[in-house]
Amino acid sequence: MPALVALDEIRPAAGPPILTRAREESAQRLMMAYAITGLFFMLLPGTFLGVWNLLSISGGHASAISTAWIQAHGHAQIFGWIGTFILGIGFYSIPKLTSGRVQQAMMGWTAWTLWTSGVLLRWASGFYHLYWRTLLPLSAVLELAGFAIFLVSVSRHRAPRPSGQSERAPVWIISVLIGTAGFGAALLLNLVLAIYVSLYNTGPAFPLIFEARFLVLVSYAFIVPTVWGFSARWLPVFLGLKPLRDRWLRYALLLSIAGVLLAVTGFTPAAHWVIVAAAAIAVAAFRLLEQPAQKSKTTGVHPVFPAFVRIAYIWMAIAAALGVCAVYYDHAHGWIGASRHALTVGFVSTMVFAIGQRVLPAFAGMRVLYSPRLMLVCLLLLNLGCMLRVSSEILAYENYWPSAWHVLPWSAILELSAVTVFAANMLLTFKQPPAHLRAAE
């Protein structure tokens, strides 16, 4: 059963100390390569291109910019950033990478090469339109090949089960497995759509009707279940929450997948109502809005870390609610655009900025976060920018308040500043020596 082991379950393999340390350092280098690659896609092809797109749209007061550009930005953000982070953490979490099997590390580096090449080609074909009929399908094949290697690697590992524990898989593993299946389905559909537009020479942009269904699949079958899985494993410990309501989260997962199936088959109104129910049940399952059972663990990060995790889940609920509003009120893509932004930036990015700065330094050789203050700054900038973007996008695009067009560029600048601070904080963290070496100095 493919699964990602938890932070506290990662252990070096038994063996000579020198050899064990070398294996662990090799796994850490691989994880850092994925993390730095993800930061690159987040900052340049992802956010920078997105800001450029938004400034162009705001200047013309209309979405007259190339659809291919917008899709290239989205692909870099979702697959280039989030997807790369997930693959890196997944490879690092496989015990075989630290148990002496050199071929496992080689598979990790091969997957990194294929995956990075695929995402770069996807961005280049959408942005520059050069040889796109060849490069677009090729990029999809490379991404799918990189993911396939990852899947083969994790499928060889079964997460250790404590003695006496039921054979029933924990809900966090089920959630991650659903997210992994959604990841693969999204990449497969991406390949199908790339071949379709290449054969029919319709341009490097996916048709809008297919893109909308593709984004629902990516959002609620891949990203959201994966985040829920990590949340189920880590949040009760990090935030001191009361025990997770396992059954409720299982219901939320079922509803999320049901919503995706309804959306993919064209039942859009019903799909969004089902997704709203899934989001509400998930928040209740995590007990985020209840009084914690114990103090949060904020050592090494900013003390407001738990508050931003809760804010992220509020953004998820807002995104789902805006999706329902889009069914009835959307005329110029303002409502649905705001819904997608609330999910990808408000929910996903806030979770990455909060949880990522909590766990990635530990994965990178038990390092300590460079600056908790920078962590606070990037979270504040991100959420302020997202708030301005979500509200002004509805007002501007739907022509409720034309002056809102002047707010959109500021939201983009705030979000670009946020991701720049986040990237700088992580890179400075990776640059400094591990905590045990610093203590020995």
Would you spell out the secondary-structure blueprint of this structure?
Layout: H1 17-60, H2 67-93, H3 102-128, H4 132-155, H5 171-199, H6 208-238, H7 246-264, H8 268-286, H9 305-329, H10 334-363, H11 372-397, H12 408-431, H13 435-440
Outline the structure in words.
The protein has 441 residues and is mainly α. The protein has a domain at 1-158. The protein has 13 helices and no strands. Helix 1 runs antiparallel to helix 2 (67-93) and helix 11 packs antiparallel against helix 12 (408-431). Mean pLDDT is 87; it is low at 1-15 and 96-100.
- State which percent range the strand residues make up: under 5%
Residue share in helices?
Answer: over 70%
User: Structural class, from secondary structure content?
Assistant: mainly alpha
Alpha-carbon distance between the two ends: 43 Å
Q: Count all strands and give the number.
A: 0
Instruction: Give me the number of helical elements.
Output: 13
Largest sheet: none
Report the principal-axis shape. globular
Q: Strand-and-helix sequence, N→C?
A: HHHHHHHHHHHHH
**Whole-number average pLDDT?**
87
Radius of gyration: 21 Å
Spans where pLDDT lies below 50 across 5 or more residues: 1-15, 96-100
